[in-house]
Design brief:
The chain has one domain: 3-Layer(aba) Sandwich (Rossmann fold). It is built from nine helices and ten strands. It has a six-stranded mixed beta sheet, sandwiched between helices. With about 230 residues, it is of the alpha/beta class. The chain starts with a strand and ends in a 5-residue tail after the last helix. The chain binds adenosine-5'-triphosphate and magnesium ion.
Length: about 230
């Protein structure tokens, strides 16, 4: 059994089916990258795993415990942590204060060192560049055991991407990562496993090679991307 088992999860918003019978299994220690077009349901999947939304149907099991109905703050304390697509840091607090407020399980100093935050520990949230804010958000997520990272590369300068990649690779040595990523090359580079979502359904999953060669994925998703 995986560290995370999502079984037949369904989630609708009014008439929109955001997730349609989604099942997946995440193996401890592996990095899974979720790809899919805008509106495919990627963030909703993270929301259903982390307790921000409750699935209409189906189950989410983490470390053997059913967390389908568990509220977000409890899920976070159990060890599933996340970053948000819109980076969320307290503007009026310093980097060090942001970290000490949000970290329960790890040594805050170790996390700050790992993410190159020591030299900006006195800077206020509102003074940070996007890349700095993203590193604070990543340090907060890194407090968990299973880290759900929503588009950590988006908005970064090309020059900042290699440093972000290094940080993710360091985290991946110790943690189980799930990433949402739009850039296919980055996704296939980072992933042990890839999951393709399309209109709320799992269109394909497997190793990067398997997914690249999957006919349905080719036709419906990768075809136009000329891999
Ligand atoms: N809180 C909500 N209320 C109403 N509709 C929602 C809500 N959250 C998501 N949706 C809808 O569910 C569908 C899936 O959205 P979701 O944000 O999960 O997609 P996504 O794959 O993360 O897209 P993107 O790549 O643009 O971030 C979309 O049609 C979206 O409009
Ligand atoms: Mg999203």
């Amino acid at each position: 059994m995986g560290i995370l088992e999502v079984t037949d999860v369904q989630r609708t918003f009014g008439g929109i089916v955001a997730l349609d019978s989604v099942s997946l299994s995440i193996t401890q220690g592996e990095t899974t990258v979720i790809i899919g077009a805008n509106g495919a349901g990627k963030t909703t999947l993270f929301n259903c795993i982390t307790g921000y939304h409750t699935p209409d149907e189906g189950s989410v099991v983490f470390d053997g415990a059913d967390i389908t109905q568990t509220p977000d703050y409890k899920v976070a304390r159990m060890g599933i942590r996340r970053t948000f697509q819109e980076v969320d840091v307290f503007d009026e607090l310093t980097v060090a204060e942001n970290i000490s407020l949000g970290v329960f399980r790890s040594d805050p100093r170790e996390l700050m060192e790992a993410l190159d935050l020591m030299e900006i520990n006195d800077k206020l949230g509102e003074e940070l560049t996007l890349f700095e804010r993203k590193r604070v958000a990543l340090a907060l997520a890194a407090d968990g055991k299973l880290l759900l990272l929503d588009e950590v590369f988006s908005g970064l300068d090309p020059a900042e991407k290699p440093a972000m990649l290094d940080h993710l690779n360091i985290l991946a040595e110790e943690k189980t990562l799930m990433l949402i990523e739009h850039d296919i090359e980055t996704a296939f580079d980072l992933a042990d496993n890839v999951i393709v979502l399309s209109q709320g359904r799992v269109l394909g999953q497997g190793t990067p090679e398997e997914v690249k060669n999957d006919e349905e994925v080719q036709e419906q998703y990768l075809g136009e991307m000329a891999l």
